[in-house]
Design brief:
Layout (H helix, E strand, L loop, with lengths): L8 E5 L6 H14 L3 E4 L13 E6 L8 H13 L4 E5 L2 H5 L3 H15 L4 E5 L7 H13 L4 E3 L12 H10 L5 E5 L5 H10 L3 E4 L2 H4 L3
Parallel strand pairs: 1-2, 1-8, 2-3, 3-4, 4-5, 5-6, 6-7, 7-8
Helix pairs in contact: 2-4, 4-5, 5-6
């Protein structure tokens, strides 16, 4: 079992009821644990973090059903407020309809809005997609300039990350594209399995529990 390193973790707080004080505590814990970043809602920005800690913000979260122009504006404002990375949700309904041209244009809208220097992670909600849809969604993300494909928001009723989805996503995208597993990863064993399956970033709200062994 691969021991999970803190430096691949996006320490995450996306609960709707989260307060500014909660985010402050998140940052303090992230610094203590040595995680790669904190991931927060864009309305929480700007936040004060040490230079060693990256800041990620979500976009079109959690449904992905926002207009592309809205996603693009939300992402751009987040970057202007200090986000180093953007985790955007695809329009899952369009994926289920196999409207791949829409997905490409949706993702490109965000990529163009934030520029090439900001890391873009594309959340595909893998638990509600077929294997074929996972492959196509990942291909759309790579075609549109994404830096990562990401399994889940952690808010969808279908569930979060699975080892099978991570393996398929890793097999689909090129080596230049990262795979982020998130949603339902709450213990060291599950986190390790995701890394062994090909994830090179993890989104965790319970980072301390995962790093405890």
């Amino acid at each position: 079992m691969t021991k999970v390193s803190a430096n691949i973790i996006d320490h995450t707080l996306l609960a709707p009821e989260a307060t500014s004080e909660d985010v402050k505590e998140l940052i303090e814990e992230a610094v203590e644990l040595g995680t790669y970043s904190v991931c927060v809602s864009p309305s929480m920005l700007p936040i004060s973090t040490p230079k060693s800690l990256k800041v990620a913000a979500v976009c079109g979260f959690p449904s992905g059903a926002h207009a592309s122009e809205v996603k693009a504006l939300e992402a751009r404002l987040a970057v202007e407020n200090g986000a180093d990375e953007i985790d955007m949700v695809i329009n899952v309904g369009k994926a289920k309809e196999h409207d791949w041209d829409y997905l490409v244009s949706d993702i490109k809208a965000v990529r163009d809005a934030i520029g090439e220097n900001v890391v873009l992670k594309v959340i595909i909600e893998s638990a509600c997609l077929t294997k074929e849809e996972i492959v196509k969604a990942c291909q759309c993300a790579e075609k549109s300039g994404a830096n990562f494909v990401k399994t889940s928001t952690g808010f969808h009723k279908s569930g979060g990350a699975s080892v099978e989805a991570v393996k398929l996503m890793r097999e689909t995208v090129s080596d230049e594209i990262g795979v982020k597993a998130s949603g339902g990863i709450r213990d060291p064993e599950t986190a390790s399995a995701m890394v062994d399956a090909g994830a090179n970033r993890l989104g965790l709200s319970g980072s301390r529990a995962v790093l405890s062994k």
